[in-house]
């Protein structure tokens, strides 16, 4: 490469491959430096064995990522050994990798999960703009970052070339390559052993390595009797065909009784302590006439899992199976079978997440999206459309099944220009990079409160229209949130949602106004999974035991509850009164107290875990 004279074809290939090797080694050093950001969230272990895994794990794992482009560069160089092609392709791949790792460190710091299918879906599905306010200033910062990354990688490429002119020997490169390969092998062997013997100081570190694919020797060791039989975690996450057996038996439902309308109103990111006369005066007034559940939990810490659990009465561990088969919930199926008119109005798109192929898969001519460039425009739009629907209903119309999904408090916390915004001072524009432990959350919380206050005004319009048209006394109205919203309440550095399973991200209000039923406030623990069984029994007259289609129970059942299963996209939790146990689909397990302080040296209750996993594996064919 350093010679101006074109070398022989074999020499050109060899020199290009050698340059690629040194360039990707330099990129490994860069990526490893970026990855130190993950160490800010990982408590460095004291045990020598676990500390050894930390060193080998970070070195070996990020080496595997940094040298992954070589799988493309080797055949490309052998076929087309041209510098004008090989150098730009290698630089592009290296720059893209370091940029993705940098972005992943930011996402992990904010939400405690890595870039995954959900994040990619948000980016390419256009949902990012509905969640984050990416201003011109932010785009400028991103542009400058891109320029800096390109310049840095040009420097790395030139540095690799200069090193080749200085170091003509081959043994250094081979030694480094063998050392990194050895670190990678040792990392996976150590993890396989730790997984087999449940040595958590090692296994818990895997979640800090983006893209890590755990290896496990448990199945082999169990077969020869070295360790116990593999756990039942896989029952919650089936591989290949979904094999659904949902419901587990035919339902018996009666057509007798009043055919009340049903209206489910969901306020995105509405947390439990934001139902009061100041923040939500209209919904607080309705609460005085309704069932109010003060210890109510969503089935998830994000929209996908929260909405799923609300309508299916199941943990969202079934999301992928239901999506694969486009299987709607039995609740919606029975409502449509009974002749209910669907009136489904979502502010955000109903195909991202894919509610059109899950919750509302059976709804004909589903309205997919709303007009408006801002969440508050779309929220006004669904209010106006639903009120117009109420106005044109005739006296003899069949009952309706309505769904209103408000989006303004989700991420942006915007309110329309000229809105009074009663909570001050409030943050004008959210700077996501400034969120940290030293930040005063009050201006951000006030911005969030104002967005919830705005949605409450729209819900008030809907309630007033129901009253004016004489339909409120014939309508079951359920109002809740899909998940909560955290503002570093526990002092653990969590903001927003999707990051953990604390009450701030999972506990939400629930109001149910039921015609003819006396109001009341209930303090026993309830969950989103309880709404479907309640409606199935008391509205649709289903006498089949709810266990045939749901892991929930009737909302008014005050018996003590051992736990709730609350899900995220890539993990789920068993939530008890004083403990939260998180199960990752890769096999990792973590335990926290109610304040989300990790409990070390404490093993999960295996019997409780087994009971939870058996329950959520109930609706797969055996």
Descriptive key words:
622 residues; alpha/beta; Alkaline Phosphatase, subunit A; seven-stranded mixed β-sheet; four-stranded antiparallel β-sheet; 15 strands; disordered N terminus
Mean pLDDT: 87
- How many distinct beta strands? 15
Query: Outline, from the CA principal axes?
Result: elongated
CATH class of the largest domain: Alpha Beta
* CATH fold node name of the largest domain: Alkaline Phosphatase, subunit A
**Approximately how much helix is present in the residues?**
40-55%
So, CATH architecture of the largest domain?
A: 3-Layer(aba) Sandwich
Tally the helices: 19
Helix-strand makeup class: alpha/beta
Spatial sequence of strands, sheet with the most strands: 4-5-1-6-9-2-10
What would you call the quaternary organization? single chain
In terms of per-residue confidence, which ranges show pLDDT below 50 for 5 or more consecutive residues?
1-10, 221-241
Gyration radius, in Å: 27 Å
Strand content: 5-15%
Kindly, what is the distance between the CA atoms of the first and last residues, rounded to a whole number of angstroms?
Answer: 62 Å
CATH superfamily of the largest domain: Alkaline Phosphatase, subunit A
| Biggest sheet details | 7 strands, mixed
Number of domains: 2
């Amino acid at each position: 490469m350093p010679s101006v004279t074109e070398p022989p074809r074999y020499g050109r290939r060899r020199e290009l491959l050698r340059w690629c090797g040194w360039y990707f080694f330099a990129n490994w050093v860069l990526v490893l430096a970026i990855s130190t950001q993950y160490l800010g969230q990982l408590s460095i272990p004291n045990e020598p064995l676990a500390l050894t895994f930390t060193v080998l794990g970070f070195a070996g794992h990020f080496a595997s990522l940094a040298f992954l482009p070589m799988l493309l560069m080797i055949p490309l160089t052998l076929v087309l050994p041209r510098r004008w092609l090989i150098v730009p392709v290698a630089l592009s791949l290296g720059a893209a990798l370091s940029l993705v790792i940098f972005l992943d460190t930011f996402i992990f710091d904010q939400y405690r999960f890595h870039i995954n299918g959900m994040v990619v879906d948000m980016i390419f599905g256009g949902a990012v703009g509905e969640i984050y306010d990416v201003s011109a200033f932010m785009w400028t910062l991103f542009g400058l970052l891109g320029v800096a990354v390109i310049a840095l990688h040009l420097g790395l490429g030139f540095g690799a070339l200069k090193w080749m002119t200085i170091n003509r020997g081959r043994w250094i490169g081979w030694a480094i390559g063998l050392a990194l390969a050895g670190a990678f092998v040792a990392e996976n062997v150590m993890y396989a052993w730790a997984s087999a013997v449940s040595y958590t100081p090692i296994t818990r570190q895997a979640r800090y390595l983006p893209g890590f694919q755990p290896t496990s020797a448990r199945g082999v060791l169990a077969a020869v009797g070295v360790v116990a039989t593999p756990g039942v975690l896989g029952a919650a996450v089936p591989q290949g065909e979904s094999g659904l057996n949902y419901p587990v038996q035919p339902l018996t439902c009666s057509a007798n009784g009043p055919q009340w309308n049903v209206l489910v109103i969901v306020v995105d990111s509405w947390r439990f302590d934001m139902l009061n006369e100041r923040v939500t005066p209209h919904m607080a007034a309705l609460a005085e006439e309704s069932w109010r559940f003060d210890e109510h939990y969503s089935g998830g810490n994000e929209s996908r899992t929260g909405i799923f659990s609300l309508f299916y009465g199941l943990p969202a561990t079934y999301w992928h199976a239901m999506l694969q088969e486009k299987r709607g919930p039995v609740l919606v199926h029975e409502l449509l079978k009974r002749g209910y008119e669907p009136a489904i109005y979502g502010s955000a798109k109903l195909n991202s997440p894919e509610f059109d192929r899950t919750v509302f898969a059976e709804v004909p001519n589903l309205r997919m999206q709303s007009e408006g460039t801002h969440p508050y425009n779309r929220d006004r739009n669904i209010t106006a459309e639903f009120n117009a629907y109420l106005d044109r209903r005739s006296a003899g119309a069949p009952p309706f099944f309505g769904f209103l999904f408000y989006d303004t408090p989700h991420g942006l916390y915007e309110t329309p220009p000229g809105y009074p915004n009663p909570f001050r001072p409030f943050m004008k524009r959210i700077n996501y990079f400034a969120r940290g432990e030293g930040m005063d959350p009050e201006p951000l919380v006030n911005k969030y409160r104002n967005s919830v206050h705005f949605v409450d005004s729209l819900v008030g319009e809907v309630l007033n229209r129901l009253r004016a048209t004489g339909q409120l006394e014939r309508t079951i109205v359920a109002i809740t949130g899909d998940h909560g919203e955290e503002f570093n309440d526990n002092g653990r550095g969590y903001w927003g949602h999707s990051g953990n399973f604390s009450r701030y991200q999972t506990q939400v209000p629930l109001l149910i106004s039921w015609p003819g039923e006396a109001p009341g406030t209930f303090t026993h623990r309830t969950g989103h999974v309880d709404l479907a069984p309640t409606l199935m029994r008391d509205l649709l007259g289903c006498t089949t035991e709810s266990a045939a289609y749901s892991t929930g129970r009737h909302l008014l059942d005050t018996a003590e509850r051992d736990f709730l299963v609350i899900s995220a996209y890539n993990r789920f939790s068993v939530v008890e009164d004083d403990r939260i146990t998180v199960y990752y689909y890769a096999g990792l397990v973590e335990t926290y107290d109610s304040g989300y302080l990790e409990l070390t040296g404490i093993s999960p209750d295996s019997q409780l875990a087994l009971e939870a996993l058996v329950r959520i594996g109930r609706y797969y064919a055996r």
